[in-house]
Design brief:
Layout (H helix, E strand, L loop, with lengths): L1 E3 L2 H7 L5 E2 L4 H4 L1 H4 L2 H5 L3 H6 L3 H18 L6 H14 L7 E3 L1 H12 L1 E4 L2 E5 L6 E6 L4 H5 L6 E5 L2 E2 L5 H8 L6 E8 L4 E8 L1 E4 L3 E5 L4 E6 L6 H14 L4 E5 L8 H9 L6 E7 L6 E3 L10 E5 L6 H11 L4 E4 L7 E7 L5 E10 L15 E2 L11 H14 L1
Parallel strand pairs: 1-5, 2-19, 13-14, 14-17, 17-18, 18-21
Antiparallel strand pairs: 3-20, 4-11, 5-6, 7-8, 7-9, 9-10, 12-13, 15-16, 15-20, 19-20
Helix pairs in contact: 11-12, 12-13
Pfam family, one: CtpB_N-like
Protein name: S41 family peptidase
Family: Belongs to the peptidase S41A family.
């Protein structure tokens, strides 16, 4: 996938704790809100108690008449309709409650599944130069097989210069059907020249977990987000690290915006033998409780690295391990997103995401707009030799536990 580097903002704003629910459009009344004839039939006293849909319809017709008569440019009526729905939901003032167009909903589903058809890279666009750079190349992808490297700067797609184009347009050009190829030309600084590669589009799983063994029996495992493939990748990583003799685990959740609730619950469960992992409560005091079972995947000491961009699902994992004294939290205070969203497909390809409940750590703490304070506070500093001072501190804390 030609993945745009807006992972944190998108992760937080697309329902970090989304649990996919199915509800008909009629249930939510989205289509009734602005359907004039149906709204006109509402009892007068009901209209008086809330929105006057007749008045809304009248004003919309007046606005449309003015646009048709005076607006200089062509009108995209589909965009206008979507704008009405988006504006209605945006008026709630909750950045996590969102109306998705058909295209946006498809993109959301792809993003949260962790699987897609593409060349298998994550890219970022520099706002000052407009240049698009490869950030990551996913394992098992066509990009990896073709020899594309992190740091390569995209120059052409199928012989078309894309250096002045928006990243979204470039993504659209790179995407295509599984089994087809796309020609990418990149500038590679290490070789000081341009490289042309034919890259196959194939089914790819996003790499949401990275790992390696460090010195002194410390295993390093980074989770970049919680997608549908994350738990299986986490299990693979943990198994590999244990086979290499891991004694203690350094779990890096810095800049992880969150993701799927089911994935983070399974991962947290692997560190606990019993007890509540997380609980939720809606406006009526109803909710759900997720608990650990007896099976334990790793019983050694753990340090968890967090920062101000560690949000939601990341905070569930860090919060549970902290509450049970299962890990030392190192870094800076987390983002503070302690609310849950459900996604409701509306039957026509569009969808609505709604904030439905608060969530609580095992100790019953709500961290919304507060975050989780680390056990060991360490601000990130820029070391001349490139040393990651937060990582070094987390290793130090872990070594104390191992000694």
């Amino acid at each position: 996938m030609e993945r745009r580097d807006n992972r944190f903002a998108k992760g937080v704003l697309t329902g970090i704790l989304c649990s996919l629910a199915v509800a008909a459009a009629a249930t939510w009344g989205i289509y009734f809100l602005l359907t004039a004839r149906q709204k006109a039939a509402l009892p007068q006293e009901e209209q008086a108690a809330g929105l006057d849909y007749g008045e809304i319809e009248e004003k919309l017709e007046k606005l449309k008449t003015m646009v048709d008569a005076s607006y200089l440019y062509d009108v995209d009526e589909e965009s206008m309709r979507d704008g009405i729905y988006k504006g209605f939901i945006a008026s709630l003032g909750d950045p996590y409650t969102v109306y998705y167009t058909e295209e946006e909903y498809k993109e959301l589903q792809e993003s949260s599944s962790g699987e897609y058809v593409g060349v298998g890279v994550q890219i970022s666009q520099d706002p000052s130069t407009n240049l698009i750079t490869v950030i990551r190349v996913f394992r098992g992808s066509g990009a990896e097989e073709a020899g594309l490297l992190a740091g390569d700067v995209l120059y052409k797609v199928d012989d078309e210069d894309i250096t002045t184009e928006d990243i979204n347009n470039v993504v659209a050009k790179i995407r295509g059907d599984e089994g087809t190829t796309v020609k990418l030309e990149v500038y590679r600084e290490s070789s000081g020249g341009f490289v042309a590669l034919d890259v196959e589009r194939r089914s790819v799983s996003m790499d949401t977990v990275e790992w390696k063994m460090l010195e002194n029996g410390i295993g390093y495992l980074q989770i970049t987000e919680f997608d549908g493939v994350t738990y299986s990748q986490f299990t693979e990583a943990l198994t590999d690290l244990k086979s290499q003799g891991m004694k203690g685990l350094l779990l890096d959740l810095r800049d992880n915006p969150g993701g799927r609730l089911d994935q983070v619950v399974e991962i947290t469960d692997d560190f606990l033998t019993e007890g509540v992992i997380v609980s939720t409560k809606d406006k009526n005091g109803q909710g759900s409780t997720y608990e650990a079972d007896e099976e334990l995947a790793f019983d050694g000491p753990v340090s968890v690295l967090v920062n101000g961009n560690s949000a939601s699902a990341s905070e569930i994992l860090a919060g549970a391990l902290k509450d049970y004294g299962r890990a030392k939290i190192v870094g800076t205070t987390t983002f503070g997103k302690g609310i849950v969203q459900n996604i409701y497909p509306l039957g026509d390809g569009t969808a609505m995401k709604v904030t439905v409940s608060d969530y609580y750590t095992p100790n019953g703490t709500s961290i919304h707009k507060i975050g989780i304070d680390p056990d060991v506070a360490v601000e990130k500093s820029e070391e001349e030799d490139g040393t990651d001072n937060q990582l070094e501190k987390a290793k130090e804390v872990l070594l104390e536990e191992l000694s």
